[in-house]
Amino acid sequence: MCTMSKPRVFISSTFYDLRLVRLELDKFLRVLGYEPVRNETGDVPYGKTESLEKYCYKEIENVDILISIIGSRFGTSSEGDKARSISNMELKTALKENKHVFIFIEKNVFIEYETYLLNKDKEIEYKYVDNPNIYRFIEEIKALPNNNNIKDFETADDITSYLREQFAGLMKQYFIDEQKYRETNIIKDINTTADTLKKLVDYIQNTNQDKQEGLKEIIKTSHPIIKTLKDMFKIRYKFYIENYNDLANLLQARGFRKTTDDGNVYEKIDDSNNEKYILTIKGRIFDDDDNLIYFKPEEWSDDMITLMSESLIEDLPF
Q1: Separation between Cα atoms, residue 283 and residue 305, nearest integer Å
Q2: What is the pLDDT of residue 185?
Q3: CB within 8 A of 97, min separation 6: which ones?
Q4: Potential cystine with 8: which of 33, 54, 63, 226 (Cβ 3.0-4.6 Å)?
Q5: pTM tops 0.85, yes or no
Q6: Number of domains in the chain
Q7: Which residue range is the domain that position 136 belongs to?
């Protein structure tokens, strides 16, 4: 069964003081159809070669969004930097990986942060945090030039209400960007067609020899299969498909192997995200000699070559 990839959201915070907030966030994300990643529920795969802490940082590379919740407890110090907690380093890792980050600070902590700024060079005790390094870290992230969207909160509802608005805004921006992308591609297609027509006109005007072979050379570089494959595999360089072997070599170079005798189905296993990709050739696009059949643009359909994905994981363990 084909499954659509879900946005993966890493929930980063100390555990004992914020476990109820983490649980509410988990429920909220699942209702939206997102995939929450929480350390305490086994969502982070641990190996044997490195510390548990480092596996958390590695998992952040595989998520789309990180939600950082800063409360009154400092938590466990990072093995690489005792002045920062593990949750601090999770946030720094997400920023380094250029992930989309949302930062929430408990309201009392956020208010007392102003007191810290007035007294940070003095040895004083703070009411709402167990370690002044929390305020030092807040000062650090507030000084970042970008990706430091910080909100205070009192309850989990404050966080989910804000995230609901933000996710809606991201979806709206996605639609805008998608429309711009389509418009840009239309312009590129028009320019490509115009360039092909110009070559045809120049060729016909400037030579009377071997016209048929020359026309074939131009036609095979503008075959509609080229655009389909470029879009499918995000190929940015120029190439052409003249026969079946050209297509087979292109697929093999991208890790696909033939699964049917007639060469109409290819598959690729991607262990990095537990996905299997299946490419299917529908209809007759090669002649009896395995040469590519030319199609006019109006005769070609993108579903003549399709690429689908299947999850290799039957049941998620959470």
Answers
A1: 9
A2: 72
A3: 60, 61
A4: 63
A5: no
A6: 2
A7: 8-164
